[in-house]
Amino acid sequence: MAFGLSLAALALLDSGANLVLAHLKATAPRFFAGLVAGTFDTGFAPEVWLSVIGLTLGTLIIVISIAAQNIPKITELYMQDWTSLIYVWCLVLGGAHIFYIKILQDLGRHPVGSILLNLYGLLPLAILTALPYIFYILKSIQPESVVQQIYRRQYHYMNQLGIVLKDGVSYQPQFLRRSQAHLIAGLNQLDDLLAYGAFRGAQAEIIGAVSELLQHYISCKPNYPAYFFRLSAAVMGDIAFKTMFDQFSQIEENHTFYEQKCFRLLGNAYVRFLEEEQFPLASLCGSEMCAIAHRILSMGDDTLLDLIIIRFNTMMRFAIKHGSRHNEARNLYNLAFHYRRFIESLVHYQRPHLTQKCVNYLRAYGNEVYELAQSSPALYFIVDVFAAELKKVLILVNEQQWEERLQLELLEEMLRLDNPPELRQPQNGDRPYGKSTGVRLLQMGLALFYLARQQPQFAQRIVEDMVEDAAVLGLAGFKRLFQQNCDRLRYAQPKFWEDTDRGNANLYYSEHTEQLPALQSLVDRVCHTLEIAQSS
């Protein structure tokens, strides 16, 4: 195609040059009276053309060969660059054009128009554009440029599919296979680039490109007919689906082959970043999952919502395993933030059932982290982080004025955090089990929020749960610990004196400390009731 376009353009230019020259000779004969055979020396032109072609093609081959060592399928991408292909063919045909002129001269013909076109048009243009073309190639093989090329082609292809399929094209197996193969091939190219890429910037570009492609696909998906989601050999033969044979019918029914591929790619990338201790890139995977979830919520696709909840939980499982194995809390710290953002999106879109499910999952993972922290002490802080995220969710739910029943159910999940029933009871010589001080601080801060909102029934439930610690610590020990926590809340500052991936906001700060006397009264009342019960 590029060769045909270049040849047609050169033929038109040559014919046009000769026609213009013939017209000018007829209208201005004196001006062209001196144009006779032998006036133009073309002996040097073939050597110059060969030099320009050799410089350009030689540089192109060297650059592509070197880039192919780090960028997979770069040759395939180059062969899809029409600008570059047309330029190279124009260069080659320009060199062939001068040889064509030399043959005509040897036969006794004098194509003055062709000579003028080549010597004063094509050759200077080739010389002037050779260096900019080399710079263009050097820029186009940069990893970021390659990612953008793949992204743009996939993006436009999805749009074209929507236009073609929306017109009512009937089911054609070959067209379906080619279409699905093109979509899967683009993701595989990005996955290969991610595996070969050594620079964080390029890897971040790839993760962002996969996320944006998936979001765009979700937007285009309503324009695709149902038969488009039948699994062709291109999908079933892909490496990501080799172990999903039993789920092929479900994937077809749910129309989720592309989403499954993208989630597998992002999940594998997340695991790779965990193992390589690439904390910002691992956090980026969670951030992009939040962006995808927001697009799914805006489209109202419940099937994909269930799928992305599973993916978030899978990422949480990988992060917990990595954190317990390496005594590393940073990845869990970041992923808990993204999980909470996802739950907040569910709250904003009024999805109470899914919100309850995700809060339950987050609480369960928090309890598991608490157990693992006995052998990996760095994870104790993550229990506080999970409690802080649940606190923010409960505050948002309260501000959204959800039903009191739902709020109480969500509050019960937070109160169960760090107190799983499957934990062993303290044995002789063990330190008595009590709720983590950090978790209690966060629960007290939540109680202060409820009191400030004139909703004492929620604060009362928190106090009742807190006083249960007196059974282990003793009433005097519980009161002493409660006073210490009150002092910590009273003097806590909104900013911490150290920085983290999420800034320096103080996890335990509460802006409603003026409600501490009211909280103290609730605790005293419950403790007094407990004392009466014990004395009787």
From TrEMBL:
Bilayer-spanning residue ranges: 48-72, 84-103, 115-138
Keyword entries, A-Z: Membrane, Transmembrane, Transmembrane helix
Phylogenetic classification of the source organism: Bacteria, Bacillati, Cyanobacteriota, Cyanophyceae, Acaryochloridales
Name of the molecule in the record: DUF2254 domain-containing protein
Native source species: Thermosynechococcus sichuanensis E542
Highest rank taxon of the organism: Bacteria
